[in-house]
Amino acid sequence: MKKILFVTSEAHPLIKTGGLADVSGSLPKALSELGEDVRIIMPNYQAINRTEEVRYLSTVYVNNYAVNILETRLPGTGVTVWLVDCPEFFNYPGNPYVDEHGKPWANGAERFALFCRVTVEVAMNRSWLDWKPDIVHCNDWQSGLVPALLSLEYSRPAIVFTIHNMAYQGIFPKATYLSLNLPGQLWNPHGIEFHDMLSFLKGGLVYSDRITTVSPTYAKEIQTAEFGYGLEGLLSYRKDFLSGIINGIDSDHWNPETDANIVQTFNHSTLNKKQLNKAALQEKVSLPVDKSIPVFGLISRLVEQKGIDLILECLPEMLTHPLQFVLLGSGNKGFEQRLHNFAESHPDKISITIGYDETLAHLIEAGADIFLMPSRFEPCGLNQIYSQRYGTIPIVRKTGGLADTVIDTVPETLNNNTATGLVFNEANAGTLMEAIKRSLILYNHSKTWKQLQINGMQKDYSWSKSAKQYMTLYSHL
Ligand code: ADP
Ligand code: GLC
């Protein structure tokens, strides 16, 4: 058994903005079920959904702040969560990255630098918790200073750093670096300096013993200029220490057989019951209830990464076909407005919900026929996996984890029952539209369609395999 400190900026169901929360809420649970001693550490944000008891454990002093360590449990699991409680930084409305008005925190660097410093105290067993991890498992830039600072410690734990998204690097001006009072040895081009700026992410990539990312394809992609954002050289240099482990899912939470958020539970042998969720979805989002019309779903942060512009380009042609489109998301205001305009002029075909709504997300997965995920890049992606579990056929671009988790429908994969979706290559509206048209043809072949649904629903997406890959990695350190 290894002792693992899992460092994250979000974990479902405590607080979530995207897939990192899904992973942080499910991988530690899977690891602990396999016998590892895992503790999660994260900031004590005001917005945390507190359903379990929270108790005070200790106080540590870092950088002139007295910071409390609080303990709670990941709801529905036995996993311990340590909350880094520093009200000066975290007791404000908003989410981990933006304030209540959607603006990135002006003191984002200070917030996460403090979180990293406290995590180092916990990792070095200097915070009165009487527990020293064997492995510190960091995630994304918010934890990037942990490996950097630990590298200066004698007898430190081993460090794994997981990249969930290279597009977010935690880059700040040199003046911010100076104001943080970080040890001078770290400031050099082989350290946390990136073109005279401070890069939190580089701290993770340079100083960790192992780097992982959330799919094998993305592990290769980030070693190229297109996906590496200037860090491809460093990643290629460290390629012997870099690997891709595909994300699993919380198969209790995303389970069409037991999901309390949907109207009718179902499985691969009762697929006809999925229709009831479709009708409920159509009703809920004010579209005509019609079981024969194909419903396309999309749930996403509305950002460049997700190919929302490709969807916007395709919508005029999509509208010439008999179909409905249901979107749930929030993000870029320009995307939100343009989507709204389409919905307003075609209320019988398009429904746009701007906001964050977990119940609706589950109903879309269960009620839609086809799920759109035309990402420009996608480290792993979870909705295409949830879709397959719910008998909803994903249309994805061949990149990152989408390429690793969706099998395109071609004669060979139809014959051997491995096809689970539609995959297109180029990030442009023309190829996306081709895939959409292909899906409409397949949708009308009900026997083939059903087979695709069954193929996807029968795949094992649980953490069991991937969690064991992390354990193997830990055991080599
Ligand atoms: P990313 O982490 O890049 O946003 P993922 O596919 O890994 O993408 O994970 C996104 C997660 O966030 C999924 O669980 C998805 O259902 C959820 N999600 C995204 N947008 C919303 C929303 N507006 N309402 C509810 N859930 C959402
Ligand atoms: C990131 C990625 C997404 C991935 C998630 C969890 O947010 O954008 O592809 O699934 O992290 O690893």
UniProtKB/TrEMBL annotation:
Record EC number: 2.4.1.21
State a single Pfam family of this protein. Glycos_transf_1
Residues engaged in binding ADP-alpha-D-glucose: K16
Give the molecular function GO annotations: alpha-1,4-glucan glucosyltransferase (ADP-glucose donor) activity
Instruction: Domain (Glycosyl transferase family): give its ranges.
Output: 287-450
Q: Which reaction does it catalyse?
A: [(1->4)-alpha-D-glucosyl](n) + ADP-alpha-D-glucose = [(1->4)-alpha-D-glucosyl](n+1) + ADP + H(+)
Its keywords, alphabetically, are: Glycogen biosynthesis, Glycosyltransferase, Transferase
Q: Which family does it belong to?
A: Belongs to the glycosyltransferase 1 family. Bacterial/plant glycogen synthase subfamily.
Sorted alphabetically, which SUPFAM superfamilies does this protein's record hold?
A: UDP-Glycosyltransferase/glycogen phosphorylase
Q: Which gene encodes it?
A: glgA
Q: Which PANTHER family match?
A: ALPHA AMYLASE DOMAIN-CONTAINING PROTEIN, GRANULE-BOUND STARCH SYNTHASE 1, CHLOROPLASTIC/AMYLOPLASTIC
Q: What is this protein called?
A: Glycogen synthase
Purpose of the protein: Synthesizes alpha-1,4-glucan chains using ADP-glucose.
Q: Pathway it belongs to?
A: Glycan biosynthesis; glycogen biosynthesis
Q: Where is the Starch synthase catalytic domain?
A: 3-236
CDD domains according to UniProt = GT5_Glycogen_synthase_DULL1-like
Q: What class of enzyme is it?
A: transferase
Please name the InterPro entries in this protein's record.
Glyco_trans_1 (IPR001296), GS/SS (IPR011835), Starch_synth_cat_dom (IPR013534)
